[in-house]
Predict the structure.
Amino acid sequence: MVINRWLNSVASAGKHLLRRSTRERPSIASLCSELYSNKGEALGIALADEVVEAYNGLTGDEKSAFFDVLLRDYSPDPELINRCAEAYRAALTPEAYRALARAVESPRQTLFRRINMAPTGTRTVVNMREDLLERLPAHPELRMVDDDLQHLLSSWFNPGFLQLRTMDWQTPAVVLEKLIEYEAVHEMQGWDDLRRRLDAKDRRCFGFFHPALPDEPLIFVEVALVTAISSSVQTILAPHEGVVPQQRINTAIFYSISNCQPGLRGISFGNFLIKQVVMRLKDEMPQLNEFATLSPIPGFRKWLTSVLANEQQPLLSAEDASLLTALDTPRWLEDSALQARLKPLLMRLCARYLVQEKRGSSPLDPVARFHLGNGASVARLNWLGDTSAKGLRQSAGLLVNYAYDLEEVEEHHEAFLNRGEIACAPAVKKLLAS
C-alpha cells in the first residue's frame, strides 16, 4: 500500500538520523522511553520501527517483563490526578477540565499511538494485546494496560474504517490461506474444501479488512444461498452437484462466522458485518426474503453438566438425569429408540438454555448473546444438525437458526438491550412451555 511505502521511506530517513552502530542494541524499555519523549516525525517513525523489531524478538518471559514496564512506568500519576480534580472542583472551567482530562489519560496511550506510526505498528499493537490477554488470568494487575489497548483499538478498528470485501477463488492466496487458518466454527479440510465454499454459485464469503492490515481478515462470514432455512450443517458442507436456478433461491444462511484476530477480542464489529452483508446480498439478489444463521450452541453441554450436578434445585427428574448420561457414550447415535427418548428432553432443555438461562441480563451462550444483541430471533432448534465430533461435544449435535427479519431486527435489538426480552418463534415458545 502507498501509506506503508511512505512510512518505510520515512523510517529509513529516521534511521539515518539515529546513526546507531550495529553493536548498539538498546533494550525495548529504553527504546520506548526515547520514542515517548521524541517529537520529530522521521525520528519518531524510525524509533517506532525499532520498538516493533525489538518486541517481535522478545521471548515469552521478556514480554511479561515488558508489560510490567508498561504498568510501572507509563501509568497516570495519582497525585497529579487528585490535584487536577481539586482544581476542577474549585473552578469548573474548561481549562481545568482539560487539565484533568490530560492527567487522567494514561501515558501508555501516547506510547501505543507512537508505536502505531511504524510501518507494521498496527499489526504489532494487535499482537501485543493478544500476548497480554494470555497473561491476564495469572496477572490481573495488567488489566489497566489492557484497558488502554482496548480503548485505542476500539477507535482504530471503528467499523467506519473497515472495508467489506467479497472473497472468492480469485482472491489472493495469502488471504485464502488465512481463511483456512482462522475458520473457527467448521474446520476446513484443505484447499478443496475451501474451493467448494467459495467457488460454488450458491456460496458466498465476506470479510472485514482494515487499511493497515490489507491481507489480514478481521472477521469473515460464510453464506449458503438456498431455497429454505437449513437444518443441517453437514448438508451445507457436503460436496453438491448441480446448480439451483437463481430464481428459486430465496434464503441466505450464515453458517459460519469466524473472528480472526485474538488481539481484537471484545471489540465488536460482527454485527456491522452481518447487516452490511444482508444489504449487499439483497442488492445482488432482490428475491432473497429470509436471512438466518445455522449456529452452534457451544455452551449447551457444559450447562447440562452443571444441571446434572445441581442437587439443590434440580431441573430434571431422576429418570431424565439417568437418560442424559447416555450422551457420554457413542451408542446413542446408533440407537434410534434411545434417540427418540432423548430428543424431546434435549430440545426442551436447549430452548431453556438459550432463552431463559442468563448471567445477569444476558444469555449464557456467547453465540446467542451475539445474534440476539444484533436483533435476531430464536427461530428453530435443529435435532442432530451437526453430527461432527465437535458438534456432539458442544451441544449433543443440536444447532439453532437465528432469524434476521429486516422489518423487526431493530425492534428486537431495542427490546433485548433495554428490557432483556428475547424474540422467539412459536415453535421455540412451545418447547419452553413443555
